[in-house]
Structures are given as structure tokens and as C-alpha cells.
Design a protein that fits this description.
Blueprint: E1 2-7, E2 13-19, E3 22-29, E4 36-41, E5 46-51, E6 56-60, E7 66-70
Antiparallel strand pairs: 1-2, 2-3, 4-5, 5-6, 6-7
């Protein structure tokens, strides 16, 4: 039981609830300019999303609001790891 996050070629993140009765779409997060290639969830309520547009965007898991970007890659971002202490 819980929340599931999915990223897509349509440049959106979809947030779902999933339990023994099935799944239901809660929210669609828009704001990326490339295909979603990686997602990472932190303990502090942040969702990190890597894309083919070379950025990592940061979203609030509470309401889906945009919190900022991590920029500096020159090619697509394919992996994100959040450390046990919350560092990315």
C-alpha cells in the first residue's frame, strides 16, 4: 500500500495511490522539457526527476509544487541516488 510515482516520455510525472483495491491517479506533475528518465524520492518530501533535457527538477511530494532545478549536466540524466542522510 502506498504512493507510486511514474515518469514518462510525455514529460509528465504521475502520482498514484496503490492498495489492495487497486490504483488511482492522484496528480499529474508537468514542467519538464524532456523525457523522464529517472526518479528518486527523499525522506524530506522531495521528488527528484532526471530528464533528457539535462536537468534534475525538484518537486514537493506534498502538493506537486516545483522547488527548483539542479543544472550542470551536458547530456541526459539517467540516474539519481538519494543518500541515507538525504543528500542527492
Amino acid at each position: 500500500d502506498g504512493t507510486v510515482y511514474s515518469g514518462s516520455m510525455d514529460t509528465t510525472i504521475r502520482v498514484w495511490t496503490h492498495d489492495r483495491d487497486g490504483s488511482r491517479l492522484i496528480r499529474t506533475i508537468e514542467g519538464h522539457f524532456g523525457t523522464l528518465t529517472s526518479l528518486a524520492l527523499s525522506k524530506n518530501g522531495r521528488l527528484y526527476a532526471g530528464t533528457t533535457d539535462t536537468t534534475i527538477r525538484v518537486w514537493s511530494t506534498a502538493d506537486g509544487s516545483y522547488l527548483g532545478s539542479l543544472e550542470g549536466h551536458t547530456r541526459s540524466v539517467f540516474a539519481i541516488v538519494v543518500g541515507a542522510d538525504g543528500t542527492v
